[in-house]
Design goal:
Helix content is about 45%, strand content about 10%. It is α/β, with parallel strands linked by helices and about 325 residues long. It has two domains: about 70 residues, no CATH class; about 230 residues, Nucleotidyltransferase, domain 5 (2-Layer Sandwich). A six-stranded mixed β-sheet has the order 4-3-2-1-5-6. Helix 8 links the parallel strand 5 and strand 6. Helix 1 crosses helix 2 and helix 10 packs across helix 12. The protein is flat.
């Protein structure tokens, strides 16, 4: 019964249906009843076993199978699976008809980064009863990451911050024009239509044209975007005339969680690499200087160091 039940659960996962403990228990009872009826109908003399789909049984079943509860976010829960499947078919036909290679198809997506947020839990020795209070820092920025489908052309990211200038630039003798990101700012550190268009013309287009010429590829490109409010609906009209060979294709509403290429572990791997390099930096500082981790974090870890870690992590995202 439990093996048949696991098959049913996997089928529900594929269709995207919500599966609750109550639904699993009810279906377990139904499957068990069908198996008993089938066995009884075959004239077996085996005593009928007693089974109750209780919470205790469910807990053992969960541990045996490894199933676990996850939060279904509103965006993913409302995804239009049929529209996504239709879009994939249309997209394939379009790329074949227009002759786009994987090197000529690009995708861009935004993500928030709490660049100065430490983990809220830590391990301590038995002698220590508690950790001294630590005030969490939740300074946030927004990044727009862009790459082609083949993974061999990564564009300079757009970085949105809440401050136009930072004292860290002066401390590191750094100009914003020399940063490995395009630095822009507004009060909420959000990407706007105007700033996104500016990034397309100043960063994306020149990088793309140079890449295509170096690879001796035809000057054609397809930029795949979601339908977020920050995306200009007429972006092709705002692109400079010398880059008119760039075509823009928007994902259909309610299909982004299913289709957005940068969400297929690209952004998540970038954040893992950022965290890895961040903590390596922390270990190096505490091992080679007299600074404590708290002192480094509060007084020496600034936005310029953060940008360097962002660039390092972005360059290390593999093809």
């Amino acid at each position: 019964m439990e093996r048949l039940l696991l098959v049913w659960i996997k089928d529900k996962e594929i269709t995207g249906d919500t599966i609750t403990e109550t639904a699993i228990c009810q279906n377990a009872s139904a499957i068990f009843g069908d198996l008993i009826a089938q066995a009884t109908g075959e004239g077996t003399s085996t005593p009928t076993p007693d089974f109750k789909a209780s919470h205790g049984w469910f807990d053992k079943f969960r541990k045996w199978t490894g199933i676990h509860s996850v939060l279904r976010h509103g965006e993913a829960a409302s995804s239009d699976t049929k529209a996504a499947e239709a879009f994939i078919k249309t997209f394939d036909e379009m790329t074949i008809k227009e002759g786009y290679s994987s090197q000529q198809v690009f995708n861009c997506d935004e993500t928030g980064l709490f660049w100065k947020k430490m983990p809220c839990r830590t391990y301590i020795t038995e002698e220590e009863k508690k950790l001294p209070r630590h005030k969490p820092m939740k300074d946030r920025l927004t990044l727009a990451l862009c790459s082609n489908a083949s993974g061999d052309c990564k564009v300079k990211p757009l970085l949105m911050y809440h401050s136009e200038t930072s004292r860290a630039f002066k401390a590191h003798n750094m100009l914003k024009e020399e940063l490995p990101v395009m630095w822009r700012a507004n009060a909420k550190a959000w990407v706007t239509r105007l700033l996104f268009t500016e990034w397309v013309n100043l960063c994306f287009c020149p990088t793309l044209k140079k890449f295509l010429e170096e690879k001796r590829l035809p000057l054609k490109c397809l930029l795949l975007l979601d339908n977020a409010p920050t995306r200009p609906p007429g972006l092709e009209e705002d692109i400079l005339a010398e880059y008119s060979f760039i075509k823009v294709l928007y994902l259909l509403p309610n299909t982004t969680p299913l289709l957005q290429p940068m969400d297929q572990q690209v952004i998540s791997n970038f954040k893992k690499l950022y965290t890895k390099h961040l903590f390596k930096r922390c270990f190096d500082i505490t091992d080679t200087t007299n600074l404590t981790l708290r002192e480094f974090w509060k007084e020496h870890f600034d936005i310029v160091i953060c940008i360097r870690l962002i660039d390092q992590a972005w360059q290390e995202v593999s093809r």
